[in-house]
Amino acid sequence: MARTLLILGAGTAGTIVANRMVRMLPPDQWRVLVVDPDAWHLYQPGLLLLPFGVYNAADLLRRRAPTLSPEVTLLPAAVQRIDPATRKVTLSGDQVLDYDLLVVATGSHPAFGDLEGLTGPGWREKAHDFYTLEGSMALRGALDGFTGGRVVVHLHELPIKCPVAPLEMAFLTEAMLTERGLRADSTVTYVTPLDAAFTKPVAARQLGDMLARRGIDVVTDFAAASVQGEKGQLTAYDGRTVDYDLLITTPVHRGAPAIHDSGMGDDLGFVQVDPHTLQSRHWPHVFAIGDAADCPTSKAGSVAHFQAEGLSDNLLRAAQGRSPRPEFDGHANCFIETGHGKAILIDFNYETQPLPGRFPVPGVGPFVLLDESPVNHWGKLGFRSLYWQLLLPGHGLPMDPRMAMAGKWSA
After folding, report:
1. Alpha-carbon gap, residue 399 to 401, rounded angstroms
2. Given CA atoms 208, 209, 211, 216 in this order, what sign does their dihedral have?
3. CA torsion, points 35, 41, 47, 51, in degrees to nearest 10?
4. Any residues with CB less than 8 A from the CB of 400 and at least 6 apart, and which?
5. pLDDT tens digits for 139-152?
6. What percent of the chain has pLDDT over 90?
7. What's the burial of 143, exposed, middle or buried (CB within 10 Å: 0-12/13-18/19+)?
8. How many C-beta atoms surround the C-beta of residue 75 within 10 A?
9. Does 112-253 carry CATH code 3.50.50.60?
10. What confidence score (pLDDT) does residue 411 get?
11. What is the signed CA dihedral for 46, 48, 50, 54, rounded to 10 degrees?
């Protein structure tokens, strides 16, 4: 009987791995099953740009089944519980699956309820998110009708998907207000629990300087306790308040409830893995990838892309009874939209901070690292086609998934 590779989640990470593994594993010995309850695949990077009219909802959605190879079996169900001791997964409807190897790719999800009052009065009227399709669409309507006032872009707490996204939202909102002639009648404030604009010091300095040049106020070390929607006020645990006419907030993200309920995750519900092999620290037949893993790197699509090649090799090794190898170095890169048709690109890993240089071809580019460029902006827009045509099918890009130092220099 064929053995089973079971993948929980068919987002970016799960889809790439499924499409790679169905080509790598002997079809007469293995079957690849993917479980996901949603019939649609969402291109999540587009949620940042949808409020500004760059995309419509239809541009970001595709039917899930065609994004998977025909040899992959898709089960439209929700995961209720995982029992790694018996290698069983219980789905909605009490269906039970047995597996030989398990990949957890259940992603991360905004925990709106973690900030008191956020979803109370004014929710999706004066207070918005952009990490869900519904939230991004509602924010688009709010921005379209905005005629000036106090805009607050708020980061509640880490971890979140794509840690630079709230900064991008601040830059893009300020640029939109300027282009619409509303900047003189508006203030833009970036509120963060961090002591700087970003977690990486080199990038934080540059981004902080850009915020200052654009007249975006920054409130640091702000641990938000509650939102008072009736008053349009954000309150910190230390008593400080920030008033708003329009709040754009990013809540902390948590892992899938099934991970927490199964006792397989940390306090936030992320699977604890070796950061280089992506193998579970507790169950050798379990791996996790992308946002579902507790790796100390960004929860971003690029990370899932870079992880996928090494994880695929390690899954093949596991299927052959061999030990995994430390393939992943924490590599991440992010295009940071700064408005006015420009963007910054940063490239880093576990050990190395973002550095200036050229990417991906050393000395040539075409992308500029740690500096604003129109080419970087077009690179971000062009990535959507690469995503659907190359990365999601598991073909990857013609570059080493590990971070390269060639073409970079000290900041």
Report:
1. 6
2. positive
3. -130
4. none
5. 999 999 999 999 99
6. 91
7. buried
8. 15
9. yes
10. 58
11. -80
Where do we find the tokens 């939209």?
337
Measure the CA–CA gap between 156 and 393, rounded to whole angstroms: 34
Q: How far apart are CA 184 and CA 80, in angstroms?
A: 51
pTM above 0.85, yes or no: yes
- Compute CA 14 distance to the chain's CA centroid, rounded to the nearest angstrom: 14
- Measure the CA angle with vertex 37, ends 381 and 299; round to 5°: 45
Report pLDDT for 14.
Answer: 98
Domain with CATH 3.50.50.60 in the chain: 3-110+254-319, 112-253
Spatial separation of the C-alpha atoms in residues 189 and 217, rounded to whole Å: 5
Which tokens belong to 97? Answer: 């699956």
CA-to-CA dists, residue 190 to 17, 52, 117, 155, 250, angstroms = 37, 18, 20, 8, 11
Which CATH superfamily groups domain 3-110+254-319? FAD/NAD(P)-binding domain (3.50.50.60)
Type of residue numbered 96: V
| 345 beta partners | 335, 369
Asked if 318 contacts 342 with a C-beta cutoff of 8 angstroms, the reply is no
Q: How many residues does the chain have?
A: 411
- Tokens, residue 352: 């190395």
What is the number of other CB atoms lying within 10 angstroms of the CB of residue 397? 12
Residue with tokens 């669409």: 137
Among 300, 325, 305, 330, CA closest to 315: 325
pLDDT-based confidence at 1, cuts 50/70/90?
confident
C-alpha triplet 346, 348, 393: angle, nearest 5°: 85
Q: Are 30 and 319 a contacting pair, CB within 8 Å?
A: yes
DSSP secondary structure letter of residue 99: -
DSSP assignment letter at 235 = E
- Smallest CA-to-CA distance from 87 within 262, 218, 220 is with 262
**Cα angle, residue 162 at apex, residues 157 and 166 outer, rounded to 5°:** 60
Q: Is 25 helix (H, G, I), strand (E, B) or coil?
A: coil
What are the beta bridge partners of residue 62? 41
By CB atoms closer than 10 A (0-12, 13-18, 19+), residue 317 is middle
